[in-house]
Design brief:
Number of helices: 17
Protein name: DNA ligase (ATP)
Cofactor: Mn(2+)
Shape: globular
Low-confidence stretches: 284-291, 469-494
Strand order of the largest sheet: 17-18-19-20-25-24-23-22
Structural class: alpha+beta
Family: In the C-terminal section; belongs to the ATP-dependent DNA ligase family.
InterPro entries: DNA_ligase_ATP-dep_C (IPR012309), DNA_ligase_ATP-dep_cent (IPR012310), LigD_ligase_dom (IPR014146), LigD_PE_domain (IPR014144), LigD_pol_dom (IPR014145), MtLigD_Pol-like (IPR033649), NA-bd_OB-fold (IPR012340), NHEJ_LigD (IPR052171)
Distance between the termini: 25 Å
Organism: Microbacterium pumilum
Helix content: 10-25%
Length: about 800
């Protein structure tokens, strides 16, 4: 499913999680989706501890603090140290994250009374909570009475408490705090408050932790204010017999003698009717936004009277006009380093980026953008000189400004069409901002000129950005700190994990067609070669095999010349292919290149069997990681990279019809196609169902486990190879292959297999007849065969040798379906 621009895999939606009511996981996900608007303000910025019931509330549950390893990488998380090491807690700030947590049966969400501060540390609590827990013989009516007594005392302290029925037993009272005291100090206040109420009403209230003193009384649990403790989040479900909710209530409701806990369907109805009774406690509660609003960072860096810039009196943004298109401004800023400030109106402020090279003039370029602090709307008309001693010191002029039409605004991607002043340098242009690393201020983005406008028509190139004469005058002596780092000119160090390719999942034409109907159709040809990751430094290309081995020296026609991939460093993904006389990929021809290691042999074979690099993806560009971007956006970046490449670099077309692509592949004798989700990120080193490969020829990677000696014309040589495919019990025997060998192939196989000879049988399930004269070898080499079909017991029929796969390791081999 697509939720809030994210693609989520949802499973077992009919699984009953609440047997008493028959409530399913699908209904739980629906609840959290619909309640998100009022739930998120109460949990945003807080670490979430979860209670999970994977098999339903009639089965055991467990607490989950650390985010699961399989959680989507877009789920935000923050580490908290523990005695056993740091744990990454999820942060809930959007609907997709809520849906993911519901998918893994996180029924209960618990949060502390504090939020992370800007440095990622535990902040001071911004609310106080009293947990009114009824002991045996008491219930909600008694809790409501204690709540009213507590309210009087809290109001006398200048705090306005708000109640909720916990969905389990009792009532919680919350009051907003100014976040000026520590958790220990607030815990002490809560404890004294509980003791005070107990002193006035000893017949009904207890503040001691001992359970023995609770029968017939309401325990005021003050300890929930401890910085290490959590409380059920408002609007969270409870893991009880019924799908009750920690439901915010009005004080009038607490006077009802029939007060009871509410179920999730009732809570949805009341929120639709009356909104959130706890709204005043949310993220912008208690007037805190006046000090901690969107312009707080901007104000903290400037002093009115010392800079000509507008400095508002509080951190609140301005009201946005609902009947006008939002504004943008691009300012040329001559600080210690020239850059352009790119600002878009959003929610009453100017969301801002520093762009060292300005708006790219062509879709073939992508310029680095670094997010800065939000600016006030008054900054949209600001021009002037900021004193050198002040933050951002230098001359600011407006390069262009105007209005924009928003197409998409997500936390990692923005697409809009901007229209500047008549006759101005920008004109009308469709741009994309794509986040590549970090979040918030100082996060890095790519500013990209889209290849087409919003209607799909090609966009013309714009002007090359240059500094204006007027702005450059007198700015050379500015010494303020740079507003943004320069674009990197060399790639970041490449680690093995950075070049692990994403792997496609085997599929059938029918499954691929169904997937293409769910996705926007995107079909690529499957080229019969070997996978390679290219690392380009602006002048030369390095090549890594799928295994991570460096194969640069094997393909000098790609690596010893400038292949024209542009001035920016990048990491690209593709297939090394050798073509036959008809221009078709030939894995057999490629064998004569991929197994060579000696420089002289490579030099002799290169002109006889040249190779091409067929590109289909990009992992990084200009020093920024773009793997998290959707495939369609990575393709646009790749088109720019390959626009002026040499003929040995090929960027094949993309089809929009599975059947047409399959028909073309059959016509030209190609291996098959790969159907991809154009919205999917690049998942390094993972086999993903976002890429589905459909083979027209049946091929299978195999592990060589033995040699059978040749007879007749092959006496003294290899007669056949015994093959296996790794399974749960070991190397499962998969039959033998004895055809498809040339004399040179047999000689090469003999040379590499003889050193691997062993006395140990590596196979599981090999028949005695096949094992009778086998010469066992250590199962370390991978090969590939063509075959007609698998027999019911997993044996390859009519197999034919295609070649060794030195780019693969045995643990990567899986049975194709």
């Amino acid at each position: 499913m697509r939720v809030g621009g994210r693609r989520l895999r949802l499973t077992n939606l009919d699984k009953v999680l609440y047997p008493e009511t028959g409530t399913t996981k699908g209904e739980v996900i629906d609840y959290y989706t619909r309640i998100a608007d009022v739930l998120i303000p109460h949990v945003v910025g807080r670490p979430v501890t979860r209670l999970r019931w994977p098999e339903g509330v009639d089965h055991p549950s467990f607490f989950a603090k650390d985010l699961e390893r399989g959680a989507p990488d877009w789920v935000k998380r923050m580490p908290i140290p523990h005695s056993t090491g740091a744990k990454d807690y999820p942060l809930v700030g959007d609907v997709p994250t809520l849906v993911y947590l519901a998918q893994v049966a996180s029924l209960e969400l618990h949060v502390p009374q504090w939020r992370f501060d800007r440095d990622g540390d535990r902040g001071k609590p911004d609310r106080i909570v009293l947990d009114l827990d009824p002991g045996p013989g008491t219930g909600l009516a008694e809790c409501a009475e204690v709540a009213r007594w507590s309210r009087e005392i809290l109001q006398g302290m200048g705090l306005e408490p708000l109640p909720l029925t916990s969905g389990s037993k009792g009532i919680h009272l919350y009051a907003a705090l100014p976040a000026t005291q520590t958790s220990e100090e607030i815990t002490a206040v809560a404890r004294e408050l509980a003791r005070s109420i107990e002193a006035d009403h000893p017949d009904l209230v207890v503040s001691a932790m001992a359970k023995a003193s609770r029968p017939g009384k309401v325990f005021i649990d003050w300890s929930q204010n401890n910085g290490a403790k959590t409380t059920i989040a408002p609007y969270s479900l409870r893991g009880r017999d019924h799908p009750n909710v920690a439901a915010p209530r009005t004080w009038g409701e607490l006077d009802d003698h029939d007060l009871r806990h509410l179920m999730f369907d009732e809570v949805l109805e009341r929120v639709e009717a009356i909104g959130d009774p706890l709204a005043a406690l949310g993220f912008h509660a208690g007037g805190r936004e006046a000090e901690d609003g969107p312009l707080a960072v901007y104000i903290s860096k400037r002093s009115a009277g010392r800079t000509p810039e507008p400095v508002p009196s509080n951190a609140l943004g301005a009201a946005s006009a609902v009947d006008e298109l939002p504004r943008f401004v691009i300012q040329e800023h001559h600080a210690s380093r020239l850059h352009w400030d790119f600002r878009l109106e959003r929610d009453g402020v100017l969301v801002s980026w520093a762009v060292p090279r300005g708006v790219p003039h062509s879709y073939k370029r992508n310029n680095l953008a670094v997010m800065t602090e939000d600016h006030p709307m008054d900054y949209a008309t600001f021009e002037g000189t900021i004193p050198a001693a002040e933050y951002g010191g230098g001359t600011v002029t407006i390069w262009d400004d105007g209005r924009y039409e928003l197409e998409k605004w997500r936390d990692d991607e923005i697409i809009a069409t901007l229209e500047g002043r008549p006759g101005g340098p920008l004109g009308r242009v469709r741009l994309a901002l794509i986040r590549t690393d970090g979040s918030g201020e100082k996060s890095t983005w790519l500013l990209h000129r889209m290849k087409t406008d919003a209607a799909g028509r090609p966009q013309p190139d714009g002007i090359v950005v240059e500094a204006s004469d007027s702005a450059s005058a007198g700015s050379a002596d500015q010494t303020s700190p740079p507003a943004a780092p320069a674009t990197p000119t060399v790639p970041a160090p490449i680690h093995p994990a950075d070049v692990s390719p994403m792997i496609a999942t085997s599929s059938t034409p029918g499954i691929a067609r169904d997937a293409a109907r769910r996705w926007d159709p995107w079909v690529e040809v499957k080229w019969d070669g070997i996978r390679a990751i290219g690392i380009w430094d602006g002048r030369r290309l390095q090549l890594r095999a799928r295994s991570g081995n460096d194969v640069t020296a094997k393909y000098p026609e790609l690596t010893r010349v400038d292949v024209g991939l542009g001035p920016e460093p990048c990491v690209i993904d593709g297939e090394i292919v050798a073509l036959d006389a008809k221009g078709r990929p030939s894995f057999t021809r490629l064998q004569s290149r991929m197994n060579l290691a000696k420089p002289r042999e490579i030099a002799l074979e290169t002109p006889r069997t040249p190779v091409h690099l067929f590109l289909f993806d990009v992992l990084s560009f200009a020093g920024a990681d773009v793997a998290r971007l959707p495939l369609r956006e990575r393709r646009e970046i790749l088109e720019g990279i390959a626009a002026e490449a040499v003929p040995a670099i090929v960027l094949p077309p993309v089809f929009d019809d599975v059947d047409a692509a399959l028909a073309a592949a059959r016509t030209f004798g190609l291996e098959g196609v790969v159907v991809k989700d154009p919205a999917s990120p690049y998942r390094r080193g993972l086999r993903s169902e976002s890429w589905l490969k459909v083979k027209l020829t049946h091929t299978q990677e195999v592990v060589i486990g033995a040699i059978r000696p040749g007879r007749g014309g092959r006496t003294g040589s290899i007669g056949s190879l015994l093959l296996g495919i790794p399974g749960p019990d070991g190397l499962q025997y998969a039959g033998r292959v004895g055809s498809g060998f040339s004399d040179s192939t047999l000689a090469r196989l003999d040379a590499v297999l003889t050193p691997l000879r062993t006395h140990e049988n590596p196979f599981v399930g090999i028949p005695a007849a096949d094992a009778s004269d086998a010469l066992w070898v250590r199962p370390e080499l991978v090969g590939e065969v063509e075959f007609a079909e698998f027999t019911p017991d997993g044996i390859l029929r009519h197999s034919r040798w295609r070649g060794l796969r030195p780019d693969k390791s045995p643990d990567e081999v899986v049975r194709e379906h």
